[in-house]
Each structure stands twice: as C-alpha cells, then as structure tokens.
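Lay summary. Proteins are chains of building blocks that fold into shapes, and those shapes determine what they do. In this project we predict the shape from the chain. Here is one chain we studied, written as its sequence of building blocks.
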Amino acid sequence: MRFTHSITAAAVVLGLSACATQPASQPTQTLPAASASAQQQHLDNPLLMPYQGPFDGVPVFDQMKLEDLKPALEQGMALQLAEIEAIANNPEPPTFDNTIVAMERAGKALDRVFTYYGIWSSNKSSPEFREIQAEMSPKLSAFSTKIIQNSALFDRVKTVYESDELNQRTAEEQRITWLIYNNFAHNGATLTGDAKARYAQINNELAKLYTQFSTNVLADEENYVTYISEDELDGLPDSFIRAAASAAKERDKAGRYAITNTRSSMDPFLTYSTNRALREQVWRTYYNRGDNGDAQDNNAIIKQILTLRDERVALMGYDNYAQWRLEDRMAKSPDNAMDLMLKVWPAAIARVEEEVADMQAIADAEGANITIKPWDYRFYAEKVRQAKYDLDSNEVKQYLQLGKLREAMFYVAGRLFNFAFTPLEEGKVPVFHPDVKVWEVTDKTSGEHIGLWYLDPFARQGKRSGAWATTYRSSTTFDGKQTVLASNNSNFVKGAEGEPTLISWDDAETYFHEFGHALHFLSADVEYPTSHSGVRDYTEFQSQLLERWLTTDEVINKYLVHYKTGETIPAELVAKIKRAATFNEGFKTTEYMASAIMDLKYHTTDPADIEPDAFEKNELQKLAMPEELVMRHRSTQFGHVFSGEGYAAAYYGYMWAEVLTADAAEAFAEAPGGFYDKAMADKLVKYLFSVRNAMEPAQAYREFRGRDAKVDALMRDRGFPLPDNAK
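And here is the predicted shape, written in a compact code that computers can read:
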C-alpha cells in the first residue's frame, strides 16, 4: 500500500477532473500471513486479480463487468485493512522494514480495483456506475480515514521516523518515511476523542458532495448539447462541420450538427461561427454548467464543501483550508501563492485591455455595431490574429494532424529519453474501448522493456471533459522490478470517417503537455511506491516544459505536414506562428489566473460569508476582472477544486510550475545544442523526471539549474513588462 496515496486514490475515484494524474497500481508484494488466505478467497473477481498476460501483466479491461465493482471494492478494502492491522499489531519493535516497507507492500488488490474504477469514472461513465459511485464514495472515505486514524500504526511510523536507524537508510528511504509520517500528521492522525470522530464524519460527508458535484457537471455536459442546422454553419471549417455531423449522428440526430458541451467543441465554434446569437448560446451553455438553477445546480454544494473543509482543518488548529493545504507544498503558504499571482495579474489584465481594443477596432471597421462580449472574444481575436500577423488558425490546423503530432512526441521522447514506441497489434492487450491504442516503450539502445503507453484520444458520451494522464502501474524496484503502464486521455473531436483528426494549436500544446506526464511516469527511476506521490505545485512543471518541444524546428519541419498534400508547413507560416507566440496571452493568462485566485479566495475566506455566485462576481469585480471574459473554470464547474481535493487551494500550482517552466526553457535555449542538447537532456531526465518525489522538488530544480527559478523568466516568456518586484 502506498500509504501516502491511499487518500489520494480515494479522491481520484470520487471524481477529480481536468489535467489530473491518477496514482498507479502497486508492485508485487509478499502479503502478511493474516491476509494472504483472505486474498486467495477472492481471486475469482477479475477486478481484484493480479494483472494477467504479457508485459508483466496488464489490466483485464475486456473482463470489466459493473456488477463486479462493488464487491471488488468491499473485498479490496477488507484485504487492505487486514494488512494494516497485521502491521500495526506486529509484536516486534518498529523498524523501517517491518513498518514502512510493509506499508509499501499493502493494498495491492485494492489499487487494481481503483484502476478499473477510474476507467468507469473518467472514460466510460453511466447512470448505473454513478449509482455505485454515490453509494461507495462515503465508504471509501471512511476506509481511508480508518487507516489514517489507526493510532497503533501511526505510533509505529512515528517511532521509525524519529529513530537512529533512519539515519542509516538511503536518501529515498528517509524521504518516503517523512512523506508517510507527514501524511499521517497532516491528515488528523493526532486527533482524539470527539475531534477524531468528527474528522471522520466530515470526510464521509465531503466524499458524497464531491461525487455529487462531478455528477452534476457531467450531467450538464451530456444533456446540454446544441444542435444546429445546415443554414447555421457559416464560418465553420469543413473539418469541424464533418466532426459535428458525426457527433450528431452518434446521438441519433442524423442530418443535424452537434456542438457538444465540451471545451474542444465550444472553443472552435466560438472562434469561427459568424452567427453571434448562436455563439452566445453555446458560450452560455458551456459556462453555465452546474449553474442552471435546476437539480444539477452546484452552488449549494460548493458552500457545503467549503464549510466542511474549514471545520475539518480548524480541528487541527489551522486558520483556513489554504493554510493547511499549502503547508507541505513548494509555495508553503497562501500568501506566497497569492503574491505570485498578484505579480502577474496587473500585466495580464492590461494586456486584455489592449487585446479588446484591437478587437473592437475591427468590429467597428466592419460596421458590426456591437460591444465586445465574452462570446465575441475568440471570434474577434482570430480576426486580430489574421490582421496583425496574417495568421489564420484554420490554416495552421491543416498541418496539425493528431497522428503526426503523436509521431512528433515519440521523436522528442527518443531524443531526450532514448525511448522507442512500437505499436502493439490489435488484441495483443485488452482495451476498454476500440478507440484506445497501445504502444510498447523500450530503451532505444539496450532494447530493455520500459512499459506500455495507452492512448484514448477522442470525446464520447460517458467520458468526462478535459485531458489527463494516469498510470495503471508505476515503476518500482523494492520488491522486484515493476514496469510502467501509463495512459493519456483526451477529448478531441474525431475527424470524419476516413479523414485525419485535425486540432488547434492550443490542443496540440495540450497533447504535448499530457504526454509530458506520461514521460514523467515512464522515466521514473525510484525504488518505492511512495516516491511517486506528487507535490501539486511541482507535478505540472514537467508536462508544461514538454510543450516547448512542439515549437522546435525539428518537430515543425518533420511532423507538421498538410493533411491532404503531405507538404511540410511553409517557412513563412512558421514565422507567423513564432511572431504570434505571445498573441492573446492576456486572455489565456487572465482566464486561468482568475480561477487560481478565486480558488485561494474561496479557501481563505470564512465560508459563512460565501454565496458562490455572488462571491465569484464580487471578488472578480474587486480584482478589476475584464468583463469581456470569464474564469477558465467558473465555480460551479470547477472540478479541479470541488470534485475532489487534488487541486483545492492549489490551482495556482500551474502558474507556480510555469515559473519553473519558463526558467528551465531559458536554460535549454542558452545551451549549445538548444532544446536537444545532450548534456541538458541528461540533466532533465536525471533531476526533473526520473527522480519523481524521491528528492525534495526545490532541491531537484537547483540540481538541474544551479539556482532557484526566477519569475522574470515567466514575464519575458509571456511578453509582459517586468515589474520591479518580479525578481
């Protein structure tokens, strides 16, 4: 059991959204005698069974049956609790081996169940699954709380943590012991009596609310689809029209065109549709998710979540939830996180003002007789892009084929990580949907098997929106080498039958971003499962950094080819793309930072003073939020923060990671070999990817860069003026 992940695993299956990475399955273990016979009795449930087949075993996705899920979860929890009791009640004095290592071995069966649970939750949800999810989420929360509140177990961990023996262990072993100890202490293990009971009760109540929040958002994404007719297609690219027709046909609306309630459908529609009334309708449909005043409205749920979180951390003596959350992150405090935000915010909204002025000038020149509204931003931004840079996003899109971009990612992985990707024949390993394809990953030099990479790229009903990465098994060596099973998941709108899927430049960056998470999994060189636990304001750094290779000449010249002619993207078009690199940066930075700042404000304000809709509006007004755009994730659909706790009070982490990203990118740009410099690549893998959390992140970055990162690199990267207090 990677104990530091037990709470995280439960949170994941309760419905984390967006670019979230799920914990991996665990290595082969030797079970305590007390639980070995119990496990043997339940090996008939395929969701509990050890992975089967080639490549050290793979998930049996072809044997997934929903009726097996509930008993598998119940049995898996029982097995893990038996293992924990055996460790906690061991009559021998606590040692690293009989306590920490034993905990690292525990929970293997339940982790396998979480793999399948995560697939149902994120990739193929259904009303039947959501009923099970609603029933099991409080049970999973109670299970996690029972472990964290096991006093005998905590006493053993504390003894090992404070022992002289620990000084003789490796640096990784010392760190995972601290991570495990801190996870106990940070999650209420020291509470007693009524406070301990209330803590458990709060976790149970929150688990139900997280599930309901994510279920409500998914319901609005599935139910609020905009169908348009042929005479309403003006301005839309042919590739988008064909994809929309296909999406409508899948929903039994043949002859119409479906604008699904996901970002990958909404965004291009708002960019190209000349029908302003329809743009407003699609915009409102998307940004009103969870805020429609109906049975799926999330406002009351948000207030309940905030109230319970505040009460829970008060039991442990914290002033607010953000103070508790950031204590063991790189930022250390909400003040430090907010300080970073407020260094960048003035420049971001000033840039928005400039962008809107450019848009309004074009609208006026065209005689549109409008004032720019949020549903106009993308449409007129595209016109400004063409006017200022002679750059047509749809023209660029013709060179962004999903398959070719995947090849480009493989090329980058080969150059930096020495990885080779070989597609597996269909049927070689089970998959959970025909869209899912699998590649074997090997070392290019030695041929050593590294792991498998699963790709599930397309949007469909029952699949949550956004893009994310996950693992079904992580690399460890403490109990014999275990290879990696990594997965990337996206929601691209599939091209019409027989045609490649074309995506936007932003989507191409997201594609590289998520692949960065996969490379982080695949390159891991750690001994213990707990070393895979992440620091939220650091784990996005590696994936953000990989986006930079999309714009390298090697990728552009080899893989950006026209989907019809096969011709390489023209040099003059590339020059336009690079000249426009910071175009619309005000919009992108402001919509993100509005969400990040609001997240911190929600978690540093007394919940009694919060009514979500009004609070969002009022706080953004205080920040002088431009009225021409909205938060990237409005409160009622902010799954990062309210469908689990992974990013709660921590959404700022993307910006924190961006500082590291901009600084590290400058290091590559300055290297003799540029972004493919061998010495820099070696340091990248050694200190930023393979080490995972076996080294304190700030120290790992110093080992790579020779110093801490500086915010001025971020300001330069975004084309913002450098404030006096940035350095």
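What the prediction tells us: The mean pLDDT is 92.
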